[in-house]
Fold:
Amino acid sequence: MTMTRVIDTSVFCSGELTVGVKNHLICLAVFNIVFSFTAIVGNSLILVALHKETSLHPPSKVLLRGLVTSDLFVGLLEAVYAAYLISLLLEGWQICHYTFLACAIVAPGLVSVSLLTIATISVDRYLALSLGLRYRQVVTLKRVCVAVIVLWVYSLLTVAVSFYSRATWGILLVTSILLCVITSISCYAGIFAKLRHHKTQVRENVQNSANPTIPLNIKRYRKTVYGTMWLQLALVLCYLPYIVLAPLVYPKILSSQSPGSHFFILESLITLTFFNSSLNPVVYCWKIKEVRRALKDTLKPLCCLRYQ
Structure:
């Protein structure tokens, strides 16, 4: 069984898809070119900043690097996706087939990596609070590196499955999404329950407290939790519309005699998912102080060279 039989490229490389929506698709292509550029540049700068930053806990930094790397690859894939839209508009069917096939094969793996990494980050934050001083002994750099490798290997396996059965791949993806959502919700619920309990203890023992650094550590920890929650929220806002609406729109593209409007809706949803990779670098700089400081240090020499 060939890949082109599993993924019917002829359905999405047809002149019927552009009828009545050519101008809209041109706008989408432009948006994706811009988002591809911002995702590649933004995530590349974040990777440089993370390399220079030394105050972040190394295992946590590895997880962030994994997420940033997947976003960087999404930015590169978005350029291919823009080429697909342009080739569709120009009726360059050979390029259209290849670019669509590349997106259909690579995108599932990158989606899986992002979802699993975000869920793993929430587990890391939960362990940091629940384990206390034992956290650095349990969550070591070696173990986290192994976990990241496992995430990427699993995602590659899902891509391999999609070569043979899109239905099986769909089941795996839905299962992964549910597990990631349940894991993240459980971890953050546990985190806020523990923080509330800790706050109550601090109030009760404030007069007898001999260690003023604990509230400061909790305050810093709370900021890191909010930062990772914003990353999760950004992913949900960008991916949820596609997850909910794509199964409804896709059959209409196949059955409708005028599929252009439904195709535009589907491509708009895909563009929104790609936008997440451009949005995440903004969240890193906004919510993670260490990354923001390292990025400023990275950009300072470039600014100085500009005015010399």
